[in-house]
Each structure stands twice: as structure tokens, then as C-alpha cells.
């Protein structure tokens, strides 16, 4: 590579939110070389959060969700083209067109795809959908607008719950099947998931927990018409949405020697990819949903985040580090944040609720359906979730960033919190859930005998 880090050939694989923001940031950082962005979808980068909300409600068309460009990144966009391999020694990315792109620096931002229904012949039935892409959302919105008699949603994670909420807002009958004890339990723990279950049932959702869907049935003409459940019951429906979480797009890296697996591509806090032996590379970077990175606030656990804000923040750090010499590189230390609107509730999360052993309601109450719940791990604050109380979130972010003691001190709550009213956070093993959590801790729980002063 040329001695000047701001020149040369840079390639971004993934024409996503992270890919676009990284391309823009590279130009902001003064990069003047050639920039190629490869994306497997034919569309320019678009925004995913509206797909499960405004698009399904019919308030916006799927093809109006394009991301605004903050500036023209002056890139060669290769859309509708899939990366099929990486040779880190020759520094080339192989494409499904048969060509290979040389690079001096590479950013991998391939994101995730929807986890498919495991039986391909059942998944191919007309009326069976997943929701991840713009095309998925357009097709599903059209089917919902046609007024099906019932929609079956498999999986009670955030995406499944938002789909169910949109169905009820459209006046459609909907059944949600979740293997775990309640919707959102993997992301929010036991106490708040009980509130989520009450809200779904109050809004007329036929919520079935502790069951799995065993078979999707067709009518003999290739159309979906119902499903069999593990408790022996049957749901008659003409639309099914499979919301089983996400699969990270790493298969194309199988022979690359990088530390890429089902939980993503491992990288350091500066977004540099690790190889399979745990040695950091210097010219391959990772950002967005496909990355796994260590975070000092969470015991240096490797975090995998499917969060909009994380994709932007990490892309900007990766872009800065791609054009900066070692001492000027900076770490990606943003505290994870996430939000969801469903069944009239605005749920916001900061930190990592799954990294907890205790919770306490610091403000509001479950009965009022307006509250701030604070999560702690071995005596310090690690997360907070607000329900219709988003103004408090900045305060709790500060507690997390400063490793404040748990339960939170006076001033953090609208009542004095005694240690004896904390309750277990009750975060289940993700293996027992239909939906994957949007934040996955993928390392081992750290040894906490050392005290940080």
C-alpha cells in the first residue's frame, strides 16, 4: 500500500447503513483514493427500521426508505453483486461475476439476513414470509393490505412483536408463537417480558408461549393455510411471518483465515479483524451487525449488536482507523442503544440488559406501564430500559459509563431503593428462545474478584 494512508484502493463489502456511512466518513477523513462499494441487493442503501413499522402499516412504500447521503462518497457502486471469497495474502475480494477486486484496505459490513424457516419446501409456500429486506417488506405489506383472515408470527423478539403490533393496528387477527416464556424475554429479561405479554394480549394478540411451530401446512395448491404446534394445537392462517432472528453473512469468508463464524467476525476495539488464531490484521476492518467486538464496560465480552446506532458509530470509527496511523486510531466504545415502538409503547434500552444478574424498577411502575428499569451485574449498573420514559435514558447512560454502583444511588430514582427490593433479572439462555436477542454476549462471563477502583 502507498505510504500515504489517505490514498490507494479501498473496498467496502456491504452496501448497507454501515457501508454507506463508512464511505462518507472516509471522504470526510480526507481519503482521496479509489473507493468501491459491493452490495448483493440491487437497491442503493436503505433504512431498515421503517420496514417493520411504517411500511407494514401502509404509511410508507418500501421503495421510499432509501438512506439520505450526507455527502457524495464518490464511490464505484457495484450493486446486485455478491462477494464470494477473500484472499488476504493477495489482497483480493472475489465476486460472483467472476472478477476479483484488489484492495489496500477492506471494510466488511455484510450485516445479517433473516433466519429462514428450516424446511425449504414449507418455506416456499405462498404466504410464508421473512422480514429483512426492502423486497420482503414490500411483499408482506401488500399481503397485509389484502386483509388476510389471520397472520401467524413465529418468534416473539423485537421484529416479531413489531410485526404483530402492525397487524393489530391494521385490524388483523394475529397469533404469535414463542418457544420462550414470554415475548422479548431474551432482550429484556423476565420482569419486563411479562409486561410485553400483557400488552400483546390486551391488544388482542393470540399469544402462545412455551410452544414451537412444528409444521407449516399448504392447501395442496402451494398456498400456506395453517400450522401445527408442539402442544398439538393447530393455527389456521393465510399469512405466516418467520421471525426467528438473524444469520450473520460470513459464509463467503470460510476460506479467508479470518475469525468468522455464526456470531460474526471478531475484531478489536479499533474494528480491525482478527484472524482465526486471534492475531489482529492490519488491512481488514469490520463494522455493523456482522462484527463481534470487545467492550471494556461489559467485562471485555465480545458483543454482537443488531442496532442501528451501533452500525453508524462503528462505521465511523472503522473509517477513521483505516486512514490513520496506529497512535491516532481510536476505539469503538459507544454504549449500545436500541428502541422499539409496539402496541402503543415506546421501549428504549441503553447498555446490555443480558449482562445482568439483578434488576430494579427505579421510576414508575409496571401497573402504570410507564417505568425505568435498571439492570446490574455483581454490584454495578450495566443497563437500563425505559417504557414511555425516554427522557431518563441519558441519566442511566451516564451511570453505565461510570460503572455506578447497583442498586442506583438516590437521585436516580423517584423513591429510595433498598437492596432487598432488587429481583433477579431472569435473562434466559438464548437456546431456549424462538427469537435471537439483538445483543449477544459471546465470550465467557468474566472473573469479578478484581475490583476496579
Automatic annotation (TrEMBL):
Classification via PANTHER family: APOPTOSIS-INDUCING FACTOR 1 (PTHR43557), RIESKE DOMAIN-CONTAINING PROTEIN-RELATED (PTHR43557:SF2)
GO cellular component: cytoplasm
Span of domain FAD/NAD(P)-binding: 10-315
Domain Reductase C-terminal positions: 338-414
Keyword Oxidoreductase part of the UniProt annotation: yes
Keyword Transcription in annotation: no
Keywords: FAD, Flavoprotein, Oxidoreductase
Name of the protein in its database record: FAD-dependent oxidoreductase
MF annotations from Gene Ontology: oxidoreductase activity, acting on NAD(P)H
Source domain of life: Bacteria
Pfam families in the record: Pyr_redox_2, Reductase_C
Cofactor: FAD
Organism ancestry: Bacteria, Bacillati, Actinomycetota, Actinomycetes, Kitasatosporales
Amino acid at each position: 500500500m502507498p505510504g500515504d494512508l489517505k490514498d490507494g484502493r479501498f473496498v467496502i463489502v456491504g452496501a448497507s447503513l454501515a457501508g454507506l456511512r463508512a464511505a462518507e466518513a472516509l471522504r470526510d477523513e480526507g481519503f482521496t483514493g479509489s473507493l468501491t462499494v459491493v452490495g448483493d441487493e440491487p437497491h442503493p442503501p436503505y433504512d431498515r427500521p421503517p420496514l417493520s413499522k411504517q411500511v407494514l402499516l401502509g404509511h410508507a412504500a418500501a421503495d421510499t426508505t432509501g438512506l439520505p447521503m450526507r455527502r457524495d462518497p464518490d464511490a464505484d457502486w457495484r450493486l446486485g453483486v455478491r462477494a464470494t471469497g477473500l484472499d488476504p495474502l493477495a489482497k483480493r475480494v472475489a465476486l460472483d461475476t467472476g472478477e476479483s477486486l484488489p484492495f489496500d484496505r477492506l471494510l466488511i459490513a455484510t450485516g445479517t439476513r433473516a433466519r429462514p424457516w428450516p424446511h425449504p419446501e414449507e418455506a416456499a409456500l405462498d404466504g410464508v414470509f421473512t422480514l429483512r429486506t426492502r423486497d420482503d417488506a414490500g411483499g408482506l405489506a401488500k399481503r397485509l393490505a389484502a386483509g388476510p383472515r389471520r397472520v401467524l408470527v413465529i418468534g416473539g423478539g423485537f421484529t416479531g412483536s413489531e410485526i404483530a403490533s402492525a397487524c393489530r393496528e391494521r385490524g388483523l387477527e394475529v397469533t404469535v408463537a414463542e418457544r420462550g416464556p414470554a415475548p422479548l424475554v431474551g432482550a429484556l429479561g423476565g420482569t419486563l417480558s411479562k409486561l410485553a405479554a400483557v400488552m400483546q394480549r390486551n391488544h388482542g394478540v393470540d399469544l402462545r408461549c412455551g410452544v414451537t411451530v412444528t409444521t407449516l401446512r399448504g392447501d395442496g395448491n402451494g398456498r400456506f393455510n395453517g400450522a401445527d404446534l408442539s402442544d398439538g394445537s393447530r393455527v389456521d392462517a393465510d399469512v405466516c411471518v418467520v421471525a426467528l432472528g438473524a444469520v450473520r453473512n460470513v459464509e463467503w469468508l470460510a476460506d479467508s483465515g479470518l475469525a468468522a463464524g455464526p456470531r460474526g467476525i471478531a475484531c478489536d476495539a479499533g474494528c480491525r479483524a482478527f484472524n482465526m488464531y486471534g492475531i489482529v490484521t492490519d488491512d481488514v476492518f469490520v463494522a455493523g451487525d456482522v462484527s463481534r467486538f470487545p467492550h471494556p464496560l461489559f467485562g471485555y465480552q465480545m458483543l454482537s449488536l443488531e442496532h442501528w446506532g451501533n452500525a453508524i458509530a462503528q462505521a465511523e470509527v472503522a473509517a477513521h482507523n483505516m486512514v490513520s496511523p496506529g497512535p491516532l486510531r481510536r476505539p469503538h466504545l459507544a454504549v449500545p442503544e436500541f428502541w422499539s415502538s409496539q402496541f402503543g409503547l415506546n421501549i428504549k434500552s441503553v447498555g446490555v440488559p443480558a449482562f445482568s444478574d439483578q434488576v430494579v424498577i427505579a421510576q414508575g411502575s409496571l401497573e402504570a406501564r410507564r417505568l425505568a428499569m435498571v439492570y446490574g451485574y455483581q454490584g454495578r449498573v450495566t443497563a437500563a430500559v425505559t417504557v414511555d420514559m425516554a427522557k431518563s435514558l441519558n441519566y442511566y447512560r451516564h451511570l453505565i459509563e461510570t460503572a455506578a454502583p447497583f442498586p442506583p444511588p438516590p437521585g436516580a430514582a423517584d423513591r429510595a431503593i433498598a437492596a432487598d427490593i432488587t429481583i433477579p433479572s431472569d435473562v434466559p439462555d438464548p437456546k431456549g428462545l424462538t427469537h435471537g436477542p439483538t445483543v449477544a454476549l459471546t465470550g465467557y462471563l468474566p472473573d469479578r474478584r478484581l475490583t476496579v477502583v
